[in-house]
């Protein structure tokens, strides 16, 4: 153990492909050299090179950031979540998914199939589940259809006029 007021300077020498650049990595006060030699930068810390950023973080636009398919959970970059996983923000959800009702989900106009979001289907389209059909349509005998007596107006199932109470 070293006295706590010892001031230690650490330099890191980067030999780049194009020339020699000296970078001051960090200055640390340390009582425990093993755990404090590297004060790696965390998410949003300013940087000039990815080597300065800890873990999987990369230096982009001057700050340490997780790679595209990962997000910063407060302590490290972890993989973004797919459909159905709990979430508190859309940045935690994989591409094309959003955090709705605390779950990563496709947009409301889409459904999750084969690990991706696809547009929901119109009337008459083949289906295996009502989740695949546009709102108000149901999957019956493998086709997206309106309930009996309703008709598809191009956007949603509407009550037939001749069945309305005004008839
Ligand atoms: C190192 O410790 C001294 C005394 O505790 C303090 O004054 C100084 O600001 C510290 N330096 C750094 C870089 O933390
Ligand atoms: C990074 O900074 C931006 C803008 O200041 C902020 O919106 C975002 O929440 C920060 N991200 C993290 C992981 O701290
Ligand atoms: C971040 O993820 C790691 C690894 O899954 C986990 O150990 C840690 O507790 C998480 N941190 C937060 C703040 O959720
Ligand atoms: C319905 O499920 C079957 C069996 O998994 C599959 O072969 C078929 O392509 C699916 N149909 C649609 C419209 O997704
Ligand atoms: C409602 O009226 C339309 C047009 O008058 C007709 O084509 C349709 O069959 C009727 N629907 C029902 C359920 O009777």
Automatic annotation (TrEMBL):
Presence of keyword Signal: yes
Protein name as catalogued: EB domain-containing protein
Region forming the signal peptide: 1-19
Keywords of this entry: Signal
Taxonomic source organism: Mytilus coruscus
């Amino acid at each position: 153990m070293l006295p706590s007021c010892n001031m230690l300077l650490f330099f890191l020498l980067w030999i780049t492909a194009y020339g020699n650049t000296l970078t001051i990595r960090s200055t640390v006060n340390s009582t425990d050299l093993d755990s404090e030699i590297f004060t790696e930068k965390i998410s949003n810390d300013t940087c000039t090179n990815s080597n300065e950023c800890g873990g999987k973080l990369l230096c982009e636009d001057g700050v340490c950031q997780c790679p595209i398919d990962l997000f910063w959970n407060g302590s490290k970059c972890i993989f973004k979540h797919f459909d159905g996983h709990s979430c508190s923000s859309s940045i935690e959800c994989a591409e094309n998914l959003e955090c709705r009702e605390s779950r990563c989900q496709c947009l409301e106009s889409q459904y999750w199939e084969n690990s991706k979001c696809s547009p929901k289907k119109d009337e008459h389209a083949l289906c295996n589940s009502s989740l695949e059909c546009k709102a108000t349509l149901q999957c019956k005998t493998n086709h997206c259809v309106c309930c009996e007596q309703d008709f598809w107006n191009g956007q949603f199932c509407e009550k037939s006029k001749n069945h309305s109470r005004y008839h």
